[in-house]
């Protein structure tokens, strides 16, 4: 489930702040961000996407991180005149870190551990969906899961958003790598679904 994150703060990126692009005079990323992700009103809520940018080391700037913000990372393209090694092209280069996939239990399924140190703000991997192995003769109900052809009927590759997973804190070798879907305050609100990310986790999963 992907939850739309809302923000009431306006955050128009300064076109002069080109982040870490190696071709600053030609970089068009922030201009494109302003044109594509302008603040807009949804109901009575002002939605203002936050433009997250890489530093010269390729780490995402997470200053003032808020789980409720709508966050966008605008990466460089050939229009910027930079090379494939530009710090602002992390997701395009794919996963560079070593990770270990291991089996947890029947409830949590498989998990991921860091096989090398991961820095705060570092790109870990791309979130591309789920893999399900169906037993012979088993048919998956599409009442809730729409077919891929329906979702992808009129889309071309450049129009499909990509979801990157970044480290919110330093991760040591052997530590679990997990996805934070909700803020801590929301997970402390009691519900009927208890979080089982680790043994004896005191948190709960929100319904929406």
Commentary on this structure:
It is found in: Chromosome. Its main location: nucleus. InterPro entries: H3K9_Histone-Lys_N-MTase, SET_dom, SET_dom_sf. It comes from Caenorhabditis latens. This is SET domain-containing protein. With 208 residues, the protein is mainly beta. The protein folds into 2 domains: 1-92, no CATH class; 94-177, Beta-clip-like, CATH 2.170.270.10. The protein has 3 helices and 8 strands, in the order αβββββββαβα. The strands form 4 sheets. Strands 1-2 form a two-stranded antiparallel sheet. Strands 3-4 form a two-stranded parallel ribbon. A two-stranded antiparallel ribbon has the order 5-6. The longest helix has 8 residues, at 29-36. The radius of gyration is 19 Å and the shape is globular. The termini are close together. Mean pLDDT is 78; it is low at 1-15 and 146-153.
For this entry, give a set of tags.
single chain; 208 residues; mainly beta; Beta-clip-like; two-stranded parallel sheet; disordered N terminus; methyltransferase; SET_dom; metal ion binding; SET_dom_sf
């Amino acid at each position: 489930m992907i939850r739309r994150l809302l923000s009431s703060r306006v955050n128009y990126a300064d076109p002069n702040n080109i982040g870490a692009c190696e071709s600053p005079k030609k970089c068009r990323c922030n201009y494109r961000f302003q044109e594509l992700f302008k603040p807009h009103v949804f109901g009575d809520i002002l939605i203002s996407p936050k433009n997250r940018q890489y530093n010269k080391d390729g780490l995402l700037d997470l200053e003032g991180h808020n789980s409720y913000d709508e966050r966008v990372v605008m990466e460089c393209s050939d229009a910027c005149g930079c090379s494939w090694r530009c710090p602002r092209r992390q997701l395009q280069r794919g996963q560079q870190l070593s990770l270990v996939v291991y089996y947890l239990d029947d409830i949590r399924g498989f998990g991921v551990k860091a096989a090398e140190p991961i820095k705060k703000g570092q790109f870990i991997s791309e979130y591309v969906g789920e893999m399900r192995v169906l037993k012979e003769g088993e048919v998956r109900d599409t009442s809730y899961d729409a077919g891929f052809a329906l979702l992808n009927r009129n889309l071309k590759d450049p129009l499909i958003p990509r979801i990157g997973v970044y480290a919110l804190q330093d991760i040591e070798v052997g530590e679990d790598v997990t996805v934070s879907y909700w803020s801590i305050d929301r997970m402390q609100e009691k519900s009927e679904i208890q979080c089982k990310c680790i043994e004896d986790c005191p948190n709960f999963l929100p319904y929406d």
